[in-house]
Amino acid sequence: MKSYVIGQASEIEEKRARVVRILDTEIAIFKLTGGELRAIENLCPHKNGKLSEGLVCDHHVYCPLHDWKINLNDGMVQAPDEGCVKSYHVEVEESTDNIILHVETMEPTRAS
Amino acid sequence: MKKKLVLIGNGMAGINTLEQLLKLAPEKYDITVLGSEPHPNYNRILLSSVLAGDASVQDIVINDLDWYRDNGITLHTSQTVTRINTELRTVTTNKGLSVSYDDLIIATGSLPFMLPLPGADKEGVIAFRNIEDCEIMMDAAKQYKHAVVIGGGLLGLEAARSLLNLDMGVSVVHNSKYLMDRQLDEIASNMLRSELESQGMNFLMEQNTDSILGDERVTGVRFKDGSEVKADLVVMAVGIRPNVGLAKESGIEVNSGIVVNDYLETGTPHIYAVGECAEHEGVVYGLVAPLFEQGGELAKRLAGIPSPGYKGSVVSTKLKVSGVNVFSAGQFLDQPGTRSFRIQDDFDHVYKKIVVQDGKLIGTVLFGDTSDGSKLFSMIRTGQDISGQEKELVLGSQGTAKPQSGIQFVAAMSNDEIVCGCNGVSKGDIQRAIEEKGCTNVNDVKYCTKATGSCGGCKPLVEDLLTYVLGSDGVTEVKEGICGCTPLGREAVVEAIRSMKLTTSKEVMHVLDWKNPEGCSKCRPAVNYYLGMIWPVEHEDEKESRFVNERNHGNIQKDGTYSVIPRIHGGVTTAKDLKRIADVAVKFNVETVKITGAQRIGLYGIQKEDLPKVWEELDMTSGFAYGKSLRAVKTCVGSTWCRFGTQDSMSMGIELEKRLERISTPAKTKVAVSGCPRNCAEATIKDLGVVAIDGGWEIYVGGNGGTDVRAAELLVKLKSEAEVIEWTLAYFQLYRENANYNERTSKWIERVGLEFIKRALASQEERRALQQRYEFSAGLTSDPWTEIIEQERLNKNYEPLQPIRM
Ligand SMILES: Cc1cc2nc3c(=O)[nH]c(=O)nc-3n(C[C@H](O)[C@H](O)[C@H](O)COP(=O)(O)OP(=O)(O)OC[C@H]3O[C@@H](n4cnc5c(N)ncnc54)[C@H](O)[C@@H]3O)c2cc1C
Ligand code: SF4
Ligand code: FES
């Protein structure tokens, strides 16, 4: 497990997301109402929609392509659809406002 | 000459009397109202909602200043009447205003009872009676943490619940063993207490307050047994007493309240009293339902309509605290000569009790399931014989055998019997709304009459009334909600936004009790649209509620890249612009350049982070070309080039596109203009199509060329270009104001009918008004591309964060 500072929390607006790329993987960092962050892979299990562009409602995001609903806490796709998105641990360091993302070491395998 | 009527007290009972009087005899009086409070007439019952943050002060106004003006009533706020001269028939206020009357109504309400404790005058010790009290509490909650509410009755518990909502720690002090002991029996009271404890309320029972501690501001409360509790805010809710000082000093007969007879007449000629300050047959009422009944009687008296007079009221109580259903009515305690029937279900926390005397229902207490409350209450009031039905009545809706059906029941109610106590709506009012205003479900009734609007206890009765008047086939399902987050349909949401002046999605979802606090992908864009349409100035567009295409001003494609389509007004461009588009396409490696189905040029395969650069270099407008707004105006070459053309379709198309672009519409819209009836621009499958004819134009509406092909219908034939613009803008505004979000014009027209649209646009005055509203909103839009290019802050949303290298 490694931790990276990927930017500052103030760079993300509430109910919006920004993307960070690690090798071939895109991770979407969401800011929920109230300022908490969540991180999931930016790839909808349905047809690869960019979840970072979806509507954020409390701790869920709706995929912009076909409206699948995904729980940002655990990456689970909500019924009636099924599936799951990889989720990551992300936190904000209060004193510096730095966003810290924890990821396992990744291999450059997947083509995006 | 009209007689002069003066009302002292701008509160619920007094103004209700005037409302009813205006219906009966609008021309009889010149009316003047004098009130101590600085506000117009508001719904005191809903103060706890204001305190809880569920409504604003504006939201609870019943009659705004326009109402007084429209009804010719002179209103003096912040004026306290200090003297009534019963000889000269004048009243005088603390500010020296003097008004003479022919008839006078005293409706001064009551004063909160403040325990005369040492220290009760300290800062932070207040009652809960009016808007000012609410504001003090809300301010206190921002700074302080510990609240103590003295009094575990209805008012105290509502205040306590609201203070919890404001994030204060709340202790309720009560002098007896049981909460709401005047409304509940022991069992219900204990159930209530444990429910409220689970919500976080702390109770100090059987405590008598000794004194209030602190220097300037309160710091704590001490009890007779010597114990103390910390407090930075103390709310006294131990009762009220009729506000009779003024009447007494003016020589009007007063007992505990101002004594009135069945016609609300006091002992002094030409002076009436109504509301909490009045005492009828030895009883003073402290709830609105009986006060409105009194108001109705007084209105008849003043209007000169004979009536048998007021005969007293049976009261019912419902606690307006979320998560707790409590109802009680009539004489609910066991006494010699009464029998009671009860069930108690500790699994589901349900308790029901009815009290019967001489075969008649005289009282009830319900906890947990209060759905039968209003029905039982009505049975109590009508005093019918219920012998043999006791079991069914207690088991209520779960019971097997049906007692008298709800329908028979409402049929037997008299017309002026109040159904909705909170808002004083009678059976007759509701029946009229159903028969005359075409209400077909509870929501409609709520928006026409306010019934069911406050505590909701009367909903079952309203449902039965609907069935009674319309038959079960005539009652419509409450219109399906705009999404799973709310049962409310578009009409209700739009009406609430207008009437309560809600200006953010958050407010809408909060006030209307959305199931998901932040909504879902269906309602968020819809609510944002409605807000923007209704309050173009006040509402700040919520980017986070817009679908990606509208947020990023490009169309997202299946691989996550975007297409950019610069606007080509009317499909007419220049060589220079074409060249620039080509240059940009080369520079950004655009994969596909495509002439779209609507005479536009699309650049496909652009990365999100390149969008701002692409726009900057294109330097053309386009924003909104992919959203729920005007896509394009397609034109033929018309009289400029075509040998058949009778009119200049190109310039008409360019003009229309410029007028129609940018502004949001419920769904995407497409327009076309053809230069003659050959209709090469295919104007008859567009949302609005203009076709030139000899000496004029035809406008077609409601066409669609997509999945559900539909030919447009002829709306009107016109002579001049100016008229075409006027009709077009008015039509689009009508669509904006009237259609459901996401409803294409073709579906909208099928739903409302072409006749509706023709009628709405028939008068020029109406058209101009619509056009003006359209242009006003359109005038507030700007090109988002320019904005984003200029603003670093917005620009950064298009860029990814720094990539990580491993
Ligand atoms: C927080 C709260 C919650 C409540 N909840 C419920 C409920 O759920 N159900 C229910 O039925 N009832 C409820 N009530 C009670 C209900 O609000 C009252 O019964 C009702 O408002 C009484 O109407 P009124 O016109 O007699 O008095 P008010 O509405 O109090 O009006 C009296 C007005 O007269 C003015 N006034 C007094 N003296 C003078 C003077 N000398 N000159 C000029 N103006 C004067 C006062 O400022 C006041 O505005 C609640 C009350 C409160 C405070
Ligand atoms: S619609 Fe009429 S004017 Fe326009 S191109 Fe066709 S034939 Fe010519
Ligand atoms: S790709 Fe996400 S819903 Fe289809």
List its traits:
heterodimer, A: 112 residues, mainly beta, six-stranded antiparallel beta sheet, three-stranded antiparallel beta sheet, 0% helix, 43% strand, B: 806 residues, alpha/beta, five-stranded parallel beta sheet, 38 strands, 33% helix, 21% strand, binds flavin-adenine dinucleotide, binds iron/sulfur cluster, binds FE2/S2 (inorganic) cluster
What does this structure look like?
Chain A has 112 residues and is mainly beta. Helices cover 0% and strands 43% of the residues of chain A. Chain A has strands spanning 2-8, 16-22, 25-31, 37-41, 55-57, 60-62, 69-71, 87-93, 98-103. In chain A, the strands form 2 sheets. In chain A, strands 1-9-8-4-3-2 form a 6-stranded antiparallel β-sheet, with no helix packed on it. Chain A has a 3-stranded antiparallel β-sheet with strand order 5-6-7, with no helix packed on it. Chain A starts with a strand and ends in a 9-residue tail after the last strand. In chain B, 33% of the residues lie in helices and 21% in strands. In chain B, a hairpin with a 4-residue loop joins strand 7 and strand 8 (98-100). In chain B, the strands form 11 sheets. In chain B, strands 5-2-1-9-21 form a 5-stranded parallel β-sheet. In chain B, helix 11 crosses helix 14 (459-470), helix 12 packs across helix 14 and helix 22 (649-660) packs parallel to helix 23. Chain A binds chain B through residues 2, 4, 6-7, 11, 13-16, 18-23, 26, 29, 33, 47-50, 53-58, 62, 64-65, 67, 69, 99, 101, 105-106, and chain B through 516-521, 524-525, 543-545, 547-548, 551-552, 556, 558-560, 796-797, 799-804, 806. The structure holds flavin-adenine dinucleotide, iron/sulfur cluster and FE2/S2 (inorganic) cluster. Iron/sulfur cluster is lined by residues 636-638, 642, 644-645, 649, 674-676, 678-680 of chain B.
